[in-house]
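ok posting inputs for the flavin mononucleotide job
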Amino acid sequence: MPGNSLGLLFRVTTFGESHGPLVGVVIDGVPAGLPLSKDDVWLELKLRRPGQYLTSPRRESDEPDIVSGVFNGRTIGSPVTIIIRNRDVVSQYYEDIRFKPRPLHGDLPAYMKYGVDSWDYRGGGRLSARETAARVAAGAVAKKLLCARGVIVVSYLYSVGDVELERTPETVDVALRTRLSPVKCPDPDLEQRILSLLREVQESGDSIGGVVETLVFNVPPGLGDPVFDKLKADLAKAILSIPGCLAFELGEGIRMSKMRGSEIDEAIIVRDGVLRWEKNVQGGIIGGLSTGEIIKFRAYFKPTSSIRKPIRTVDLETYRETTITVKGRHDPCIAVRAVPVVEAMTAIILVDHMMRAGYISTDKLTLQELKNIETYWSLYRKYSPKS
Ligand SMILES: Cc1cc2nc3c(=O)[nH]c(=O)nc-3n(C[C@H](O)[C@H](O)[C@H](O)COP(=O)(O)O)c2cc1C
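and the output
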């Protein structure tokens, strides 16, 4: 069954496997007139790129190529296709564990579904996080389009293990500055604590779980279509489709599940003639519809399953229990690498719903939309690493 596309009006289809020649994305529904360069996309891909501090040492430049849908620097209304070549592929590691699946990777479920003859066991194949580079490329286009209405999406690291952020960034600038942090963390003290924790985890050949938090600023009220296309449902599906993500929490959902109604004490108030929610405890979505408050949610990531410590499994050739230690190149904490992926998936869902609700042109961008894009996209550029 097909399962590689997402979205109704802004429709994203990714393709490619970890150890194939490339990964890529076809984006249908990009209106004409959007200025789009390779650098716009590369800017975002660099935030996800392996080979940075304390992430997998797989060296990929992740230089994208826009191979359709753009002419003279602008989109032309036809599908935008972006490819990213896989250059640093080392499949030997996976030959060694071909018949010894990692218990918490997709190896055995894929083997069971597709069979030994039709299963790409190299680096997780299609289930590898390499595919998320294509999502980030699509996310760059989505984020640029959201700028047409001043909507800004920012994800950052909320916690690693027990080390957790205490204060949510309050402004767009403070949130965006996290793009410059090596671990995408908004608090400099916390950043240092996380870095030393990650160093210790990596040196011991282990991995650790973490949480990514996302804020979406300037969202109009009323996005989301009851009952199955509620905004919270579409966001949850998109976020849970990210490899390694095991839970989605809207607003303070987990804390609220342990409280009494009276303790929550949320209120509707009027501020400057506008209806507002005083605490925004439900993260800007109620009844599946955006409220106009900042959207806030958390994505929970498990520890990387491929670790250098012994892992118990079964040898599929002998059906004997055995132990493996995974060599390969792996991230000590998926959550750190996942930050731009969460941001991209959020933008993809938001732009689709903005189009459905008529907030962003679907055929050709207006002059006002183009002006807004120039203004707001410059914020992302301002807070982007230089290399
Ligand atoms: C950006 C990113 C990087 C990842 N890096 C690794 C990695 O280096 N090693 C690994 O075993 N899993 C890694 N994962 C997680 C696996 O891809 C994931 O656990 C696997 O596909 C099984 O899917 P599930 O955890 O969603 O069930 C990464 C995930 C993301 C989003």
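notes: The mean pLDDT is 94. The longest strand covers residues 152-160.
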